[in-house]
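re the bet — no i am not wrong, look at it urself. input seq straight from the record:
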Amino acid sequence: MAKKSDIPEFGLLSDLKVVHASTVAAGPIAAELMAEMGADVIWIESTLAVDTNRGKGGMGAEQDRENMRNISFNIPSPEGRRILEALVKDADILIESSKGGQWAKWGLTDEVLWSWNPRLVIAHLSGYGQTGDPEYVKRGAYDPIMQAFGCMMHLNGFPDRAPVTAREIPTDYYAGLLTLGVALAAVHKAKQTGIGESIDMAQYEAAIRFQNQRPMDWFNRRVPSARVGNHNDVTAGWGAYTCKDGNDVYMMWLGPSVMKNGLPLFGFEFGSELFPNDKNFVALGTPGGDLLEEKIAELCANHTAEEVESILVNAGVTCSRIMDYEMAEKHPHYMARETITEWEGVDGRKLKGINIVPKLKNYPGQIWRGCPTTGMDNEDILEEAGFTAEEIKEFYDKKIIRKL
């Protein structure tokens, strides 16, 4: 159990109170990043079902629910509504994730929430948004479905095969990161005006927003974006290459300094007829492009991935071995930056995971607590919200709240 007074004061958001009633990844990652920056984050977990990220048996909740306090209650019940009002009346941000319009169906419209707290920033995360075609607004959503609908999946894979899903749930994290930034901007405005904001974060829109020039290439010039697999479809020396030991190096021969410094490795010169310096790359299908591809293949056939990476980096070519978690755990740069760290779970286990990102100099984040169990902080949170011991007992007796 943890009271507000148990939260150490640290980070950029130590004055912020956040309530989130969201599951899996998109809403929780926004709340989690706030918790890692010192905010008091209260996680509402339904009494009807545990959070999917906890229930599916992986470590997702352990990584993305650190520093939170947990209360488990049934929001749409009359008693749950009372509890919610007590929690948000002094909160800065409320985050919820459900099908579009679900909270309004419960009678918890933005206007009702603002009647409790006019400066509240409300973030609604859903697959298709709160408005639009009613047939889509009411649909459920998961990351791969949003990749499909958000025009992201058709970009990924090889040209001779079906599109593939990009791992690991990127559209959830896109939506969560957008919510983080906009919610904090809205809090900034609310402190000036006393007026809150309502954020309508449609996950498919997060998917299509972060595709660089690809949507505009089509909307304006009708230029399709073909799937290209592990190699760029324009530039030689850009892609993944398998080495002698069966491991891969991803490299990009792109930019004047890379071309100038890297080409002499193979006896070529940037600015020659084969490698003209009016472009910062050499095109596939040209004599120079064919020669560069041939030399890269030869280099990789005769060296391990670690050796190829070293040779190319020393020659000024941007590249990296394609890392896996085992390699990362032992890598000197990961170790020097403490990218992977350990903390203690609420059950006393030692857990290893990803450290606070990004690193801050003056107000660094920290991990002060592991992922709480369901309803772990019911009593502390309810007492702080003004409920008596008798009321809390009644909530348990009526199964309005629970603890697992």
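see?? The longest helix spans residues 170-193. told u. also The first strand starts at residue 17 and ends at 21. so pay up
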